[in-house]
Amino acid sequence: MTKTSLIFDCDPGVDDAIALFLAFAARDEVDLLGVTTVAGNVAAALTARNACILREIAQREDVPVAAGCERPMVRAPIDAGHFHGQTGLGDLPISTPQKGVEAIHGVDFIINAVMSRPSDTVTVAVTGPMTNLAMAMVKEPRLSRRLARIIAMGGARSEGGNITASAEYNIYADPHAAQVVAESGTPLVMMGLDVTHQVRAAARHIDAIAAIGGPVSKACVNLFGFMDRTEKALASGGDAPQHDLCPMAYLLAPTLFTLRPCRMEVETSSPLTSGHTAVDFRHRDSPQPHIKWAISADADGIFALLTDHLSR
After folding, report:
1. Cα distance between residue 103 and residue 273, in whole Å
2. Predicted TM-score of the model (pTM)
3. Which residues are designated catalytic?
4. Confidence band for 282, pLDDT divided at 50, 70 and 90
5. Long-range contacts made by residues 295-298, C-beta under 8 angstroms, separation at least 24?
6. Is 124 helix (H, G, I), strand (E, B) or coil?
7. Where are the domains of the chain?
8. DSSP label at 255?
9. For 174-189, what is each residue's pLDDT tens digit?
10. Over the stretch 98-122, which tens digit does the pLDDT of each residue have?
11. Helix-then-strand count for the chain, H and E
12. If we measure between CA atoms, which residue out of 104, 101, 176 comes closest to residue 135?
């Protein structure tokens, strides 16, 4: 099996943590070149530390972590600590990881990793604001043509927003970066709220992961528990959606999702609808659009995939 060369760009974040554990566990399918972190759910220093903590729990110190941008491209920073806890990892015990971040900035890490490899061989999964990737595209204009594809969690169409009436958090946190990525021409798969709200961690899913045992299983159960309480208190009142799990699950098992080609524009100027993703399936002006929008997912299949990999 040919492994996918992957950069995982994130802002951990409780649901980023679950996705990272899946990426760390997918040794057979993924050559994880590195994890880059960005300000988002919590401040940049915390997201970088959190990635190092999760790497240590997963015993994947072979994977470099590079801290990236500390604020959005244009707008003021907006965090989501109310959904992720003060540390960003909910109730997960926090300690100083033995191995820290690399000396290189996350933006330069992305550029170097992509430009040093053959064209169309590196995939980027993004589960936070797209600041790092957009800045890399601005700094190195050849990057967009060399990437194989981008799989990103962000946006909303039919579901409406989760941070404003029409905007999903990752896009709202840095709409200008999202628009840079959307306009780059790089093949882009978008996992918006339309599909991530279908992937909710039910008790049976959590019980199956708890039965695995070990540090990663224990951490996942802790994170699921925090997300469940937060979702019930602050949002839908139901089981917690696993937004950031979706890009990694799609990378490993694309048949678990249904996609539609689309045109997507990001609102960057309106005070009322900033961060809104205008998704048009008619794509009349683009007969071969490079963007695909996820519309459905097999939730049980995704959690089976997660459980299987964590069991390894």
Report:
1. 38
2. 0.97
3. 243
4. confident
5. 295/194, 295/195, 295/258, 295/259, 295/260, 296/195, 296/198, 296/257, 296/258, 297/195, 297/196, 297/198, 297/199, 297/246, 297/249, 297/256, 297/257, 297/258, 298/256, 298/257
6. strand
7. 4-311
8. G
9. 999 999 999 999 999 9
10. 999 999 999 999 999 999 999 999 9
11. 13, 9
12. 176
Give the separation between CA 106 and CA 39, rounded to whole angstroms: 11
Q: Characterize the bridge pairing of strands 257-266 and 277-280.
A: antiparallel
Phi, psi of 158 (to 5 degrees): -80, -25
Top CATH class of 4-311 equals alpha beta
Helix (H) or strand (E) run with residue 20 in it: helix 14-25
81: confidence class by pLDDT, cuts 50, 70, 90: confident
Look-up of token digits 């009436």: 165
Instruction: Give the span between the Cα atoms of 231 and 229, in whole angstroms.
Output: 6
- How far is Cα 118 from Cα 110, in angstroms, rounded to an integer? 14
Token couple for 226? 């925090």
Tens digit of each residue's pLDDT (9 = 90 or more) over 10-66 = 999 999 999 999 999 999 999 999 999 999 999 999 999 999 999 999 999 999 999
pLDDT over 90 percentage in the chain: 93
Burial (CB count within 10 angstroms: exposed 0-12, middle 13-18, buried 19+), residue 152: buried
Please give the mean pLDDT across all residues of the chain. 96
274: alpha, beta or left? (left if phi > 0; alpha if psi -120 to 50): beta
What the block records as the tokens of 126 is: 């993004």
Burial string for 181-201 (b: 16+ CB within 10 Å, else e) reads bbebebbbbbbbbbbbbbbbb
75, 84, 9: which is closest to 43 by C-alpha? 84
Gyration radius of the chain over CA positions:
18
